[in-house]
Design a protein that fits this description.
This protein is of the alpha/beta class. The chain is built from 14 helices and ten strands.
Length: about 325
């Protein structure tokens, strides 16, 4: 399979300009440790609360007029759902979103608020129903990560990190990226490796949904059962395997993938809220958890971490802050 190119990343950057927010690279003095410093890329500040708007808008904006007229269908636990719904509304495209019935209510309601039709299904049906709807209604499928347009769109996150690091004269050594289906880390790793030679890119995921780390160690793409990955609090990282195309990018550009515990994720959400004044959903907080609790597994002294999203139930945030 052909890997996404730097030209495709730059084209995606032009396509999403004015739609996705160019989030800053924030210094985090509260996270500094002897010989180590952290900058955060706060993608929770995007219009839909997560990085997914980058890939979703890049994919939908590239559709032909005929494809737009057919409408689109996507499957998601929430952040891709909201992004596709938002992008579709901006472009005047009908959107149907298949979501697991375990999705946080805030993500379901946000998706509906952008005008999409939401179909709630058992988690085991989420990835199968879209194909049936394509066959039945002629919709264009917009996958959450296994697509070059999606990967290129998410990769604009990495282009911005590289540009800001140069502007700040910041010698970044390691960038931490959440891992689920692999669209974000594929795009970010591609962007960074092609613009910042020498930087290390390390993926982070929950130990309870550690299929990507398992695959990386084994050197082959492995699939975990839903019953395992759905145990984690990080609902956005519950996919059962890396996508086929993302796996190719991970093998080419990613230096390591590590896991963090549920307790570490919960603590990171609370620390980000209290010290960083940032609302992070558990899926977005895994990279901060890695920085705070796994220094022994992270080489380098100057780090950047992608905070991928901030869509979580207020009750859950309250619970994590009170713990």
């Amino acid at each position: 399979m052909a890997l996404v190119t730097l030209d495709e990343l730059r084209e995606a950057q032009r396509r999403i300009a004015g739609v996705a927010v160019r989030t800053p690279l924030l210094p985090c003095p509260w996270a500094d440790r002897p010989g180590r410093s952290l900058h955060l890329k706060p993608e929770n500040l995007q219009p839909t609360g997560a990085f997914k708007i980058r890939g979703a808008y890049n994919r939908l904006a590239a559709l032909t007029d005929e494809e737009r007229a057919r409408g689109v269908v996507a499957q998601s636990s929430g952040n891709h759902a909201q992004a596709v719904a938002y992008a579709a509304r901006r472009l005047g495209i009908k959107a149907v979103i298949v979501m697991p019935d375990t999705s946080p209510e805030v993500k379901v309601e946000n998706t509906r608020s952008f005008g999409a039709e939401v179909i709630l299904v058992d988690m085991t049906q989420r990835d199968d129903l879209p194909a049936e709807l394509v066959e039945r209604h002629g919709y264009v499928w917009v996958p959450p990560y296994d697509d070059p347009y999606i990967i290129a769109g998410q990769g604009t996150t990495g282009l911005e990190i590289a540009d800001d690091a140069a502007m700040l004269d910041l010698d970044l050594q390691t960038v931490l990226v959440p891992v689920s289906g692999g669209g974000l880390i594929s795009g970010v790793a591609t962007a960074l490796k092609l613009t910042m030679p020498g930087v290390r890119v390390i993926g982070v995921e929950p130990a309870l949904a550690g299929d990507a780390a398992d695959s990386f160690r084994a050197g082959e793409r492995r699939v975990w059962p839903h019953s395992d990955t759905y145990r984690t609090i990080a609902d956005g990282l519950r996919t059962t395997s890396l996508g086929v195309l993302p796996w190719e990018h991970v093998q080419a550009y990613v230096d390591d993938i590590i896991t963090v515990s549920e307790e570490e994720i919960a603590e990171a959400v609370a620390v980000l809220a209290r010290r960083g004044r940032l609302v992070a959903e558990p899926s977005g907080a895994v990279t901060t958890a890695a920085y705070l609790f796994h220094a022994d597994a992270l080489p380098g002294s100057r780090f950047a971490a992608v905070l991928s999203g901030g869509n979580l139930e207020p009750a859950l945030l309250g619970k994590l802050l009170a713990a």
